[in-house]
Structure formats: structure tokens, C-alpha cells
Amino acid sequence: QFLYFIGRCLLIGQPHWRISDKFRLHTLCCGTRTTVMPASPKKKSSAAEAANEDAAPAAEPVPVNDDNGDDDDGTDDRTWDFPELEDGGKKGGARRRKIKEAAKKVGEKGKEKSSRAAEAFSSALSTKVGKIAERTSKASHRVTERLLDKDRPSLEVVLLHDKISYTVSVVSIVSMAFTIGYAPFWFIPWNTVMAFLLLSRRWWQFRKENQHYYLYDFCYWANLLTVIYSWFLPRSTTLFHIIFMVAVGPLGWSIPTFTNSMIFHSAAHMTSVFIHLSPGVLTYAVRWHVPQRYGYKVCDDYPGCWETSPWTLLRDSYLIFYLPWAVFYFVWVYILMERRIKERGYEILFAWIIEQKPMAFVRRMTSNVMMQKVIYSAVHAVFALGTMFVGLAAWYSHAVHLTLVMFWVGYASWNASGYYFSVFAKRYVDELQRRAMSHEESHAALAAHLHATHASGDANVGNEEASVTSTTTASDTN
């Protein structure tokens, strides 16, 4: 009853009944007596308030069940009734209904306004998006037309690149021959400049194609030795023995072994020919045509050099240079770097040469990759030693040395002629046609992709408009 009284007084709010004005509530816990007592009247601030109080005196609470309120436990069990609170509850309910009706009317008006605003926003958005899509479509069509117009210039660029390579290659061969015949000493700086340019380009190309482990191969180390001898150790007879035997041995004979070709329009082919041929031409110039007064020492009894024994030449070139390189290459590339090469997809010469027909017997002998590498290394060592034995004659004979150089030049030219007349005539035209077709297909695919993108973009615009409208309506409803 006490809680009911407090709730009615606080929530209904009667004008002639204030709990703070009429009553003081004393609550005793734990089942003690609960009494509602009239409060002492406060001092009125005006005569009007006193008149109102006299005219409408507050009703006293009347006990409904009066059984003297005393039980055996000493508590007051009477129930109190407040008639003015009941009337106030009815008036408060009518007030709340009016407030709800007014709020409902305001909500309907706000919903109508928000709906009109959402429709106006959707219309403006669709118009703006349509204009943007139209501008984008026009711009993409212009770009597509420009790309389609670039078919012919791209082929002209390819032809221009091949023309430049062809011209540079021919001029290089002619200048090399002129230098050897007119001023052999100047072939040394010419060779150094060409080695720097071609090997730098090859490193950049191999690095881009994950083939830079090719640069650990024997021929690149031999070319490095020629540069070191030319500029840093020109008076070292041991170093000249090494580069001489390597040049007339495995390097020179790699031209027929790997079928190197003087394909003038191909920078890659001409670089391979230079790597295998230029050390032989350099040693030819120094051994037979560069006097020792220029500071390049060949042997102690120049120009005959008969006191230099074949054993000395083989010992310096094979035992001092080749075998240490072979051990280093096997340990570094085949063992230490094997995992790195596999994980990163790098290429090495072994993986390519083992698939060629002359080395097919290695794959037939064993399927173990490490054993295949051992066999390949042994074959490489035998090839190097055998070609060095053939090259011994060039140390003692100018004619033999000149014949070997001319043979390698002629063999590379013969391979190039076969390429130009039996392969290049058809392959080059097919290559140009393939590039033209690939350009057309790629640009057609690009145009189709742009068209599909525009179509999907228009569909997405409609979906976005519907999504915006539905989202705005849902938000207004909430």
C-alpha cells in the first residue's frame, strides 16, 4: 500500500495533493509500524493561495478496513484509500492519449516530408551519376581508340630495335677487324669497352629473367680475367698462360658446341659470340702482334716462347684456374644455393644443357639429380682439358692460332646464314604476324572489357539508386 501511494503521487501529480505539502512519511523497516501523517501547513506566500486552500481542502485518507489495525505483532494492517488520486489517474490517462495522438500526427507529417526529400535526392543522384557514367564512357572510348591505333607503331618499334642491333653488330665486327690489322694494341681498350657494355646488358637481362646464375659459368670468369690482365697485371706470364689456353681451348670451341651464330639483329646472339670469340682474338693480338715494349709480357724468350713447356701451360690454366673454379662452382651453385635456386625459380646452365640431345645419355644413366650434376661436371672437365690439348699448338704456331680464330668466325657465320635463310625468313615474318595478331587480340579484349565494365557500371548505378531509396525510406520509417 505504501509503494502504491508513492507511485500514484509521483506519476499522476494532482494539483491539490502534494506529498511534500500534505504529508510526512515515516517508514520503519523490518515490519514496524508504517504511518501516514498530515504535515504541518507551510506559510502561504499570498492570500490567493490561502483562499484556494480553504475552498478546496485536501481529503484525508480514509481507512477501508478498520479492524483497529492492531495484530498480535503490533503492526498496522489497515488499508488506505485516496479518492482524489483515483480521479487524477483518469485525467492523466486522457492526457497521455492526447500526447500520443499529437505525436502520431507529427510523425506522419515528418514521414511525408522525408519521403519527398528522399525522392528528390534519388532523382538528383541518378542524374549526377548518369552524367559521370556518360563522361567516363566517352573518355574510355577515346583511350581505346588510341590504343587500337598503336598497332602499327609498335611493330615499327620492334623493327627499329632490330635495325639498331644489326647496325651496331656490323660496325663492331668491321672495327674489330680494322683494329687488329692496323693497330693491334688498340684492340685491348676496344675489347674492354665492348665487354663492359655487352656484359652489363646481359646481367640486366638475365636478372630480369631469373637467369643471372648463368654468370657464374666458366666463360664469364675467363672474360673477367682478360680485363684484369689487360689493365692490372699485364706483366704476369702465368695469367697470360691461363687466358691464352682458356681462349683457344674451351671458350673458342664453345662456338661450335653451342652453335653460336652471328645473327646481327639479335643482341643476345652477338653477345654470346663476343664472350666466346673475343678472348681468342685478344690473345692472338697480344701473342703475335703487340710488342713487349707496350708493357705486356708473354714469355721470357719472346717472340718464340719455345722455353715455355706444354706442361707449364696446362698446369697454369687447368690446375691453377679451371679446377678451383669447378670446385667452387659445384659447391656454391649445386649445393649451397640449390634450395634458393629451386624456391625462387632461378635457371642454371645445367638445367638447360641436360635436356639437350648430346647430354641425353646422362638422364638415361641415372635419375638422381645430384649424380647427374656430378657426371655433367666430369664431362665439362674432360671437354676443357681436351680442347686445351688442341690449343697447345696455337702457342707455338701463328698459323694455327690464326686458323682457329678464322674457323670459329666462319662457323658462327655459317650458323647465322643457315638461320637467316632457312629459319629466319619464315620465323621472322611469323613473329611479326604473331605480334600484330596479339596486339589486335589484346586491344579487342581491352575494348570488350571496357564495354562490359560500362554495362556493369550502368547496372550498378541502378542498383545503387534503388539501394539509396530503400535505405532512406527505412531510415525515415525508423
UniProtKB/TrEMBL annotation:
Pfam families: DUF2838 (PF10998). One of its GO terms (molecular function) is acyltransferase activity. Residues 35-114, 458-478 are annotated as: Disordered. Residues 47-66, 466-478 have a biased composition (Low complexity). Residues 100-114 have a biased composition (Basic and acidic residues). One of its GO terms (cellular component) is membrane. InterPro entries: GPCAT. One of its GO terms (biological process) is phosphatidylcholine biosynthetic process. Keywords: Acyltransferase, Lipid biosynthesis, Lipid metabolism, Membrane, Phospholipid biosynthesis, Phospholipid metabolism, Transferase, Transmembrane, Transmembrane helix. It comes from the Eukaryota. It is found in: Membrane. It is a multi-pass membrane protein. The chain crosses the membrane at residues 173-200, 212-232, 238-255, 267-286, 319-337, 374-396, 402-425. Its main location: membrane. Belongs to the GPC1 family. This is Glycerophosphocholine acyltransferase 1. The lineage of its organism: Eukaryota, Discoba, Euglenozoa, Kinetoplastea, Metakinetoplastina.
